[in-house]
Amino acid sequence: MSAFYVLVFTAILITYRVVRGPTLPDRIVGLNTITTKVVVIIAVVSVIRGEYYLVDLAIVLLMVNAVGGLILAKYMERRASHD
């Protein structure tokens, strides 16, 4: 259970980078990190509670996170080429 608290605490710390990040890439990396931590939290909670269907939810969230990261990277690439 202490792993749960460590993950939540570090996700809260990373929230500072998302809110106050000096650049857009810093914010995107922070948001992806928080989402990955949420996936791990869901997996840990599902194992502790024995509700393994939540692992499916975590996998879907991880896939959405990966696709979202790719979309944002493509957006930043296009924005950089127009400048």
TrEMBL record:
Transmembrane region(s): 52-73
Keyword entries, A-Z: Cell membrane, Membrane, Transmembrane, Transmembrane helix, Transport
Top-level division of the source organism's lineage: Bacteria
InterPro entries cross-referenced by the UniProt entry: MrpF/PhaF-like
MF terms (GO), sorted A to Z: sodium:proton antiporter activity
Membrane topology: Multi-pass membrane protein
Signal peptide from the UniProt entry: none
Annotated localization: Cell membrane
Pfam families in the cross-refs: MrpF_PhaF (PF04066)
GO CC, any one term: plasma membrane
Keyword set includes Magnesium: no
Similarity annotation: Belongs to the CPA3 antiporters (TC 2.A.63) subunit F family.
NCBIfam families in the record: PRK08381.1 (NF006243)
Listed name of the protein: Na(+) H(+) antiporter subunit F
Organism: Unknown prokaryotic organism
